[in-house]
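User: My collaborator and I are trying to settle a disagreement about how two of our proteins should look. Neither of us wants to argue from intuition anymore, so we agreed to look at predicted structures for both before our next call. Could you fold the first one, then the second, and keep them clearly separated?

Assistant: That sounds like a sensible way to settle it. I'll keep them separate. The first protein:
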Amino acid sequence: MGFRKKNKSPPVLSHEFVIQNHADMVSCLAMIILLGLMFEVTAKFAIMFITVQYNVTQVLDEKSDPVNLYQYGPKDVATVFFYLLIAVILHALIQEYILDKMNRRLHLSKTKHSKFNESGQLAAFYLFSFIWGCSILTAEDFATNPTFLWEGYPHTRMVFQVKFFYICQIAYWLHALPELYFQKVRKVRMSFPSFFPFFFSFPKLIEFLHRLGLVLLVPHYLVELLFHASRLFYFSDENKQKGFTLWALLFVIARLLTLTLSVLTFGFGLPRTENQGFSLAEGNFNVLTIRMTCLAAICLTQAWMMWKFINFQLKKWREHSQNQASKKKAASPKSKPHKREPTRGGAANGVVKSEDKTSPRARKAKAS
């Protein structure tokens, strides 16, 4: 009897090797870019990947100090690529040191295992993005001054935090594409709400309405954070379903808030600004056609999300009603109880008793 052969490691640069070691390979690539900062020859190329580019010094008033603002440009593609690598590394760290340990304790099925991992990754991202977005809006005093959505249009320049926020957003949503390969996803099942943040982040590359995009993404991230957190609690204990009720309520409120702010910006704010017209050089797109196109795109997006939400709720309601009906059928008896028939012994005894009640003359006649 021969010894069993141990499983050999996959060949270098093969399909399985890349999947098993993709986090280490990406880490090495990121370290090479960071090491480029140590040498004068490569520093000017490496810094393009790490730091935010296209800063402009602007003097607002004579008494105030100059402020560093930022614009967009083609070099931002390199910055997005570097932080895409960082997103892949963080994805692997969260999966290995947090989610995998929780999965071992919960003993989930394969289907729930993949959904648990998906919700865990998205919950971490939504929590980080929501806190970051709230800090930016607090610094901009949006709660006390909503008119900053259209004041000073065109908004071709932004502070460091806003530009870096959008770069990280685009990098994260782009990193989901290679993760489909690394996780061996055969059938892509991406919900439409997952594409909404990337849909609203991408137009910022042309410096268009980044303020409105930031305001709309923050409540959306709060709703998605609550949904995926509720899924995590549900997978740990199926009786914990109260979070989905709160999520459904906030989902509808977020859609109404998005429509309200969009109509307020495109219908009332931008038409009253001084800079009217179309100019690619200045980043001015304040014309009726573009305003109505953007408003229609946002309204159709929200309508589609509400349609998917309603279908989801109806499906869950049907499943709940079917489960309740099946439980009632199982609890009720299969057939109504019938009256008990007399046994043979009891019937015979009854006959004997009836015969004993006959008169003696009838007995003698019957005997003769």
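The second protein, kept apart from the first:
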Amino acid sequence: MKWLVVLSALVAFSECLHKMPLIKGKTARQALQEKGLWDEYRKEHPYNPMAKFIQTGAEPMTNDADLSYYGVISIGTPPQSFSVIFDTGSSNLWVPSVYCNSQACQNHKKFNPQQSSTFQWGSQPLSIQYGTGSMTGYLGSDTVEVGGISVANQVFGISQTEAPFMAHMQADGILGLAFQSIASDNVVPVFDSMVNQRLVSEPLFSVYLSGNSQQGSEVVFGGVDSSHYTGGITWIPLTSATYWQIKMDSVTINGQTVACSGGCQAIIDTGTSLIVGPTSDINNMNAWVGASTNQYGEATVNCQNIQNMPDVTFTLNGHAFTVPASAYISQSYYGCSTGFGQGGSDQLWILGDVFIREYYAIFNAQAQTIGLAKSV
């Protein structure tokens, strides 16, 4: 009888976890390299990873050519499906629409409001600022289905124009998972709607990103999947409930502080592919690991040297999180490069997918904490 009660509890608990599978697809960089257009593209569209973190009153995004994780959601009645990037560095949901004639909309799925019986137009326009352009459109509301959760009357953006770089991305749109305080037009984010409508058992979600081409990446809404991590969870308080921002004490290599001397702020961001920091700090880190930096700020290494390269340790609120060379070096047909990106003179750091692949991340909105555990 006792085992039956335990089993029933486990079944009930498992039903509370809403899993959103993520696909690890081809990046914009890979697509452009295959067409021989990458050099031309990066000259015209220099990567500006900090663009999305500059508050201008408009919803920010950036042109990250290395984003590769996306999941499929649906909007409307009957449902229309879209692949979106789940972005903890922004707060709005938006997808392309049939009213968009930009090149970026021509090779992506487009939402048609007239084909949804539950769609309602909003009264406000929407503007999203990119590192190299913008997306403009309108707000509307409809039923949004994410990972088996059906969110009623969710306000979202439908694009009318899109920046050219979006044409090379596999995902159709973006689903922001940061806080309402930074949402364009003060729109209630999708996860907040889930909590408000009592569709999740706990006000938290967690992210697991697989390495290389492995499948299994997912966002879990309403709980934590213990099969994705080993050891304990370290909880770190947010320093700002805007982005998922925390205190970073230092970055060290072989016991030496090489960046973030005296402390800095870091954002855990699934919508940034690299670990990004101030240009001088990143250049110092790249020099320490034996990388040479080109005119675009990309740091390359000899692929033969990876096994001899040092670990990099990020100390967050007194807790050390180590990232080995096997995790921060990206290998491709075109060579090997580090996952450390230049972010200009701003002291803000972004711990993107390179970091999250190593550490299962749990985002607790109510407690305003982030939990990190060693990924399996």
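Some points you might bring to the call about the second protein. The chain has eight helices and 28 strands. Residues 109 and 172 are 6 Å apart (CA to CA).
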